[in-house]
From TrEMBL:
NADP-dependent oxidoreductase domain location: 19-300
Pfam families: Aldo_ket_red
Organism per entry: Bos indicus (Zebu)
Name of the featured protein: Prostaglandin F synthase 1-like
Keyword NADP in record: yes
InterPro entries in the record: AKR (IPR020471), AKR1C (IPR044482), Aldo/ket_reductase_CS (IPR018170), NAD(P)_OxRdtase_dom_sf (IPR036812), NADP_OxRdtase_dom (IPR023210)
Amino acid sequence: MDPKSQRVKLNDGHFIPVLGFGTYAPPEVAKKEALEFTPFTIEVGFRHIDCAHAYQNEEEIGQAIQSKIADGTVKREDIFCTSKLWLTSLRPELVRPALEKSLKNLQLDYVDLYIMHYPMALKPGEELSRKDENGKLIFDSVDFCRTWEALEKCKDAGLTKSIGVSNFNHKQLEKILNKLGLKYKPVCNQVECHPYLNQSKLLDFCKSHEIVLVAYAALGSQRVKEWVNPNHPVLLEDPVLSAIAQKHKKTAALVALRYQIQRGVVVLAKGNNKKWIKENMQVFDFELTPEDMKAVDGLNRNIRYYEFHVGAGQPGYPFSEEY
């Protein structure tokens, strides 16, 4: 199966490739890895690249994309590029300038998808997270429905083809869907999703509203201190995943990715070496049986690696709801 043809239709008529490359890396290596691995991901067949202002490497990703357009590997329209609006730019008047900054860094005239990174706002400023004298994050109060209206205007202006959200719970999605004068529904909700947190209730909710679920941390997590609970078990060492992988002569990582694609979830894969990045493409070479799917479903234990615990208790904190 040619991975480049595996796409899902969004509720606005555009198409998103079912397998994407996640470009997040720890800050100290983010720029280096973006330059090193992004051209390679395009060479091996990835056409969906998931970026964000907060990852601090959009400039390097832009250079990589341009180099692959320049050498004839791809055309701009072959690439599906996502960027994300960071928490410091949720005030409506800051939305378009934030997108324009990402476009400048990415060297693109438009992104294919622009999403609100979280339903919570931080105090505006150049730094990604402003802290008070006690080292606590300074939150801002912004109604994300107003932010959404600013995103709709960006779509109308042609700066992004589609607009969506990330890390929203179902009540927060409902708030946008029921908003007076809604022009465009979110096309997606990008959330942490893997066999230990399979998000089946949120997935059902999203499907019922034609919203595509996009899975990040699909292979568990990178251990990032501020965001991640380090005491959780390592997903890819799970014996059930390992047994299914052995049966199909694939890796546990491929089973975890394939699981998402078969349940209609768009999945982001990461890899910080070329062997793993190339290996991700094998997700199109096999199929899990209904029994395999049921076994993986059975692994769900509501383990959230990315708890964003520093935001708990703040208005808009999404993870207090069941889904």
